[in-house]
Amino acid sequence: MKELTTDHLLGIKYLQKEDIDLIFKTADHFKEVINRPIKKVPSLRDITIANLFFENSTRTKLSFELAEKRLSADIINFSAAQSSVKKGETLIDTVNNILSMKVDLIVMRHSQVGAGVFLSKHVKAKIINAGDGAHEHPTQALLDTYSIREKLGTVAGKKVVIIGDILHSRVALSNIFALLKQGAEVKVCGPVTLIPKHIRSLGVSVETDLKKALTWCDVANVLRVQHERMDIKYFPSVREYTQQFGINAELLHSLKKEIVIMHPGPINRGVEITSDVADSNQSIILNQVENGVAIRMAVIYLLAQKIKN
Question: Staple partner for 54: which of 42, 49, 110, 178, CB 3.0–4.6 Å?
Answer without folding.
Answer: 110
